[in-house]
Specification:
Layout: E1 2-10, E2 13-19, E3 24-28, H1 35-45, E4 62-69, H2 73-81, E5 90-97, E6 102-106, E7 109-111, H3 113-123, E8 124-127, H4 138-148, H5 150-177, H6 181-201, H7 207-219, H8 221-235, H9 241-255, H10 260-289, H11 294-314, H12 318-336, H13 338-384, E9 391-403, E10 406-415, E11 423-424, H14 425-428, H15 431-448, E12 453-457, H16 465-481, E13 483-487, H17 491-494, E14 499-508, E15 511-518, H18 521-533, H19 539-558
Helix pairs in contact: 4-5, 5-13, 6-12, 7-11, 8-10, 9-10, 11-12, 12-13, 13-15, 15-16, 18-19
């Protein structure tokens, strides 16, 4: 549930904090007092785009912070999959907005707007003032059904999407394959040319590294020989290290008999003299054997250029070139036996289509089973909302072809008057009726939904009288199993509040500021009177407001817990 909302420097709000309770939380106030800012601030905290004009004038930044208490184990598990872990059972979502940028955080860690929206979808469901208009779109109807049946549909819809992708892939391959004969011959000729080009090169794994090593050695031959010759001279001949070391060895030999320590040094000098002589002989052999061959160098350079050209053309390494050759040979084989290749593709397409048809049928069957139950529950909820002779159903047709969502083209049908045939919802219902239909749908979905908090922004638009009373009672029922936050202008709905908040607007130091306050019992009655009676609140209006509050209390006590 949503524990609290903290808003700072947002539009008309300088700073406000609201602590929401369980059950039905009502927000009321005069037009223009800032009720919409409350919903707007919640949306901002949950990742919606932040318009610059929402920042309060002359403020450096705006801040919105929501604190949720997570009490459902499944919610906690799903949040954990997003690496979001409640701290002391709470999740804190905040958004700081400056003229240049905005930063969203969950439990003090910066996250993207998409992450905030995904996390929010697990915790809260916001029904905006105009969302019921989405019921005019048929695709929304199927989304509602799938949400209702998600427990049985989720895995099958995943398989459906996979089957559709496979089917579309093989169709695309088949369409590509069904090209004209001239194009096939041209492709075959080009492939054969490239295969021969690779074959003629007789590439061997690791050859490029050996060639590069040999090329570096030959390209630096003069430098190598000069260095080797100098080393040879320094280790042999007159004045060389060998000559000097020999003299040192002879000096030690002449006195080693007088001191055992000098004997050890004489032995070391002898080993070094032997090693130095070996080094000098090996340098001599290296110089004698290494001769620069212009023809060999040119051949190595040509071969290295050829290997590098093929590597650059076919993948960057000899292994990639050889793999490319295998793939081209396989493609050539298909093109040479094109009839068999097309037949195999056609067979794959038929199998993919059969699998797609099967899973589409399974999904459709589940949808139709749940559609009857959903329509029945929505119809019952509509009766509770003063649609006395309503009939509600879902009509199914098949799409022209396969889609990633199956073959169902479904829409809601409704009849609100006796004797009238059922017609598509979007062609029959008025704005007020659509609003109640959406409330009925939300009420039904709430029973199977793990989202703990529902927010309704003026879902009561276009209704009054007995209908308003029945909408209030339905809100009360939803509030038994969910936390509901509702902005309303109807006293019948406000009277049902478990917690009633008043949003007011005042002028302080020539600046307009919105405030929000929790009302006590008598304050709530006065607000109901204002909502009922307008500018002038008479004793009769106050008495009517008290009766309304008492009636609501009686209804709440009689309503069964869910």
């Amino acid at each position: 549930m949503l524990v609290s909302l903290h808003v700072k420097n947002l539009a008309l709000i300088e700073e406000a904090e609201v602590e929401f309770g369980r059950g039905l939380n009502i927000l009321s106030g005069e037009t223009g007092a800032g009720k919409s800012i409350i919903i707007g601030s919640v949306n901002l905290a949950l990742g919606e785009k932040a318009p610059k004009e929402m920042l309060r004038e002359n403020a450096e930044y705006a801040l919105v912070e929501l604190v949720f208490r997570v009490e459902d184990e499944e919610q906690e598990r799903l949040l954990g999959e997003m690496d979001i872990f409640p701290e002391d059972g709470e999740v804190i979502m905040s958004r700081k907005i400056t003229p240049a940028r905005s930063v969203g955080k969950i439990n003090s860690e910066t996250v993207s707007a998409s992450c905030m929206k995904k996390a929010a979808s697990l915790l809260i469901d916001i029904h905006g003032q105009h969302e019921h208009q989405s019921l005019l779109q048929k695709k929304k109807h199927l989304e509602i059904l799938d949400e209702y049946a998600k427990g049985s549909l989720e895995e099958k819809k995943k398989r459906l999407r996979q089957a559709y992708q496979e089917y579309q892939g093989v169709r695309a391959e088949l369409a590509q394959a069904e090209q004209d004969e001239g194009g096939r011959e041209r492709e075959l000729s080009f492939l054969e040319y490239e295969i021969k080009e690779i074959e003629d090169a007789h590439l061997a794994a690791g050859e490029d590294e050996e060639l590069e090593s040999a090329y570096r050695k030959m390209a630096n031959g003069r430098k190598i020989m000069e260095a080797a010759g100098a080393a040879y001279e320094l280790t042999g001949g007159n004045g060389s290290a060998t000559e000097l070391l020999g003299r040192a060895l002879r000096e030690l030999q002449s006195v080693s008999a007088y001191d055992g320590k000098l004997g050890e040094l004489e032995s070391q000098a002898g080993e070094i003299d032997s090693l130095l002589n070996d080094l000098n002989r090996e340098l001599s052999a290296y110089i004698s054997n290494e001769e620069f061959d212009e023809e060999t160098f040119a051949g190595t350079e040509r071969r290295l250029d050829e290997v590098n050209r093929l590597k650059e053309k076919f993948g960057g390494s000899i292994e990639a070139v050889l793999k490319e050759k295998e793939e081209k040979e396989a493609r050539c084989a298909r093109l040479r036996d094109y009839g068999t290749y097309l037949a195999q593709l056609e067979e794959r397409k038929e199998k993919a289509e059969a699998a797609l048809r099967k899973i589409s049928g399974e999904v459709s069957k589940i949808r139709k089973e749940y559609a009857k139950r959903l329509a029945g529950e929505i119809q019952a909820a509509l009766v509770d909302l003063n649609f006395l002779d309503v009939r509600f159903a879902m009509d199914f047709k098949e799409t022209d072809g396969y889609t990633a969502n199956g073959t169902d083209d479904a829409e809601f049908l409704i009849s609100t008057n006796p004797g009238e045939p059922m017609k598509p919802l979007g062609k029959v219902a008025s704005g007020g009726e659509l609003s109640r239909v959406m409330l009925a749908i939300k009420a039904v979905l709430a029973e199977s939904d793990r989202v703990g908090t529902l927010i309704f922004d003026e879902i009561d638009a276009g209704i009054s009288g007995r209908t308003a009373q029945m909408v209030a009672e339905k809100m009360n029922v939803i509030g038994k199993s969910h936390q509901v936050i509702c902005i309303t202008h109807l006293p019948q709905i406000a009277a049902m509040a478990d917690s009633h908040f008043l949003i007011s607007k005042n002028v302080v130091n020539s600046a307009t500021i919105s405030n929000i306050a929790l009302l006590g019992e008598e304050e709530s009655v006065k607000e109901l009177a204002r909502m009922s009676g307008g500018v002038k609140i008479t004793d009769k209006v106050m008495e009517s407001a008290r009766e309304m509050k008492e009636l609501a209390r009686s209804i709440k006590e009689k309503a069964p817990d869910t």
